[in-house]
Amino acid sequence: MSNSMFYTGLSGLSVSQAALVTTGHNTANVNTPGYSRQSAQISSNGGTYNPGVGFFGTGARVSDVTRSYDQYLVSQLNQAQSSNQSLTTYYTQVSQIDNLLANKTAGLAPQMQVLFSHVQAVANTPADPAARQQLISSSQALASQFRSINQYLTGLNASVNDQVSGSVDQINTYAEQIANLNKQVAMLSNAAGGQAPNDLLDQRDQLVNELGNLVGTKVVVQDGGQFNVFIGNGQTLVLGEKATRLATISSASDANHTTVAAVNASGKAVELQESVISGGSLGGLLQFRSETLTSSQNSLGRIAIALADSFNAQQNLGVDLNGALGTNFFSQASPGVISNSKNTGSLVLTPSFTDSNQLTTSDYRLDVKAGPVYTLTRLSDQQLIPLAPGFPGTASTTFDGVTLAFASGTAAAGDSFLIQPTRAGARDLTVLLSDPSKIAAASPVITGNTASNQGSGAISAGSVDANYLAAPLAANVTLTYNSATNQFSGFPAGAAVAVTFANGSTDPASPYAAGAPVTYTEGAKMTFNGLTVTISGTPSNGDKFTIEKNTSGVSDGRNALLLGALQNKKTINNGTASFNDAYAQLVSTVGNKARQIDIANTAQTSLTTQIRASQQSVSGVNQDEETANLLMFQQMYQANAKVIQTASTMFDAVLGIH
Predict the structure, then answer these.
(1) For helices 129-191 and 294-316, what crossing angle results, to 10°?
(2) For residues 477 and 463, what is the distance between their CA atoms, to the nearest angstrom?
């Protein structure tokens, strides 16, 4: 009996020692990231049958060392942290644009206000060289600010490219480490008869957790305990002991964007669609670039293009101090077409602007399918845009203020083209005028009443539109009133005359044939060759009204007034927004997005904290609990030592019997 008691005490001593070691291991790793609390599983050794008496226990044993682990909570925590990191990264990036655009000194709004105040100064004193120089200087400052903001956004794109490359390098490192741990886990588990190598499992879980901070992951556990790891929306990253290597390449559709590719068995990098990559800092970067960065740069470019287009158009309708028609004030960017680097055809397309008022902030993609069949997609809303019949071979196609025309070559099925109408708008905005005298502040025509007129008729100052440039006034025009017929004669022989009444309706006899007399209606607009005049009052028979070419714009600021009116004119987004409106909309859109991401990130952070607390309540090491366990197992050890001592005393007593 003493011998049995000795072995029973010895088993208890061994069990308590194992429990003490496990508790000590927990205590040592209380601050180790990813460590799961371990427990020694103690079970009875069973009993020995003693005939006529029954079974006597033979002590205890440690059957396993397990870790406190909840796969569901771990998976939830990984997903929550991945979303949290994605939102954090997105907010960090978008807040930079938000701070820049909303800056009261660095933004565009103050510069545009200065520009138009100087336009007004020229209108007030058109002969003042100082006012004209101020206008050129403020125009240069505005153009410089456009380019500066665009350069900042381009720098953000370069930064995103660098961060994407860095993230992919880290992902590859984690993938290799996870695959290596898969191999070790399988090998040690088999060698230990199926016992789990807990610390290696914790290390692997921690690597998956850290990988999730870079990109969203999904883990599938194989029967042997190995992890299969998928990223984004299903791209394989780790399959057992093998890791798929990712690479960064320039996007085939836009070489300015660095994107992610998977390296196949032959070593070729196959570009992944950005839509399949989500979560983590990498997903946040790609989402920021596609949702906010690109549209912000396009919006800025649209404002610059509309400003240059409308300002140039009005400048060209005036005359400078030398009496010459105005020339372009600003340079204007051209829309871009990028041929996909994987294209096998030779088609070349030429884009051009048709109406800056109709431009959107979207990019477009032209796809070629077998046939060939062409489809044009507006990428902002994925809407298909109808193409003109015969495009591209026999006809050009016009959409959203852009015309796309055939230049040369032929397309092959599978080819695609990225069309960026406004991307370079801010980058290419410069001031073309350097001579203050070239500012076309004056109107190209001067009207007047002859001194001999007897009636009360008066002619308006006259205005011109874009049609005037095709046939500028070559000779002075004198309109003579005939009271007998109530008509004016003297219109240019080669120009038909359109008449619009004061209420906006059209004269039924309009247009009048070239050289024919025109019936007089008080307040009606008479237009020929893009030049419009209005005569009011009651003219007398033979009264004459003159329309002359303005040969000197020294004292004339009428066209400068029209330039100033562009500040509030709705020249953007199909006549719904002015320059300031469009910029305010850009600032508001970015600001709202930043606020939206910030709110979502705050909520996601709270959710992540709650899930982490739940996970730690299961797997985390509680120092107070471990201290209590340490005392308990110490006493257990001492008690079993006492059992052994008692058994030894009993054995000695037996030996002492003579």
Answers:
(1) 160
(2) 15
For residue 639, give every residue at least 6 positions away whose Cβ sits within 8 Å of its Cβ, in sequence order, or none. 12
512: DSSP letter: B
Q: What is the DSSP letter of 438?
A: G
Beta carbons within 10 angstroms of residue 172's beta carbon: 17
Q: CA–CA distance from 283 to each of 92, 157, 168, 175, 614 (Å)?
A: 13, 15, 11, 17, 26
Q: What is the sign, positive or negative, of the torsion defined by CA atoms of 488, 490, 493, 495? A: negative
User: How does DSSP classify residue 444?
Assistant: S
pLDDT in tens, 259-309: 999 998 888 999 898 888 999 999 999 999 999 999 999 999 999 999 999
Amino acid at the residue 154: T
Q: What are the residues facing 644 on neighbouring strands?
A: none
Q: Are 416 and 430 within 8 A, CB to CB?
A: no
Query: Where are the chain's structural domains?
Result: 2-68+621-655, 74-290+578-611, 334-421, 445-549
Instruction: Tell me how far CA of residue 9 lies from CA of 18, 416, 645, in angstroms.
Output: 14, 80, 9
Closest listed residue to residue 349, CA positions, set 421, 271, 252, 290: 421
Helix axes 108-124, 579-619, angle to 10 degrees: 170
Alpha helices in 102-217 (DSSP H): 108-124, 129-191, 198-212
Place of tokens 């979560």: 279
pTM over 0.90: no
Cα separation, 334 vs 428, in Å, equals: 9
Cis peptide before 372, with omega less than 30 degrees from 0?
A: yes
What is the Cα–Cα distance from 424 to 197, expressed in whole angstroms?
A: 58
Identity of the amino acid at 535 = I
444-473 b/e (C-beta count within 10 Å ≥ 16 → b): bbbbebeeebeeebebeebbbeeebeeeeb
186-190, 203-207, 267-271, 417-421: least confidently modelled range: 186-190
- CA 513/CA 510 separation, integer angstroms: 8
Helix 129-191 with 280-288: angle, nearest 10 deg = 150
348 half-sphere exposure, CB direction, 13 A CA radius: 3
Q: Are 278 and 234 in contact (CB under 8 A)?
A: no
Q: Of 410, 422, 437, 453, nearest to 542 (Cα)?
A: 453
Greatest C-alpha distance within the chain = 166
Distance between CA atoms of residues 404 and 395, nearest Å: 9
Spatial contact of 633 and 20, defined as CB atoms under 8 Å apart: yes
Other CB atoms within a 10 A radius of the CB of residue 126 amount to 23
- Nearest CA-CA partner of 351 in 310, 401, 389: 401
User: Strand, coil or helix: what is 544?
Assistant: strand
**Are 211 and 81 in contact, with CB atoms under 8 Å apart?**
no
Please provide residue 255's backbone torsions phi and psi, each rounded to the nearest 5 degrees.
Answer: -65, -15
Residue 340: the pLDDT is 93
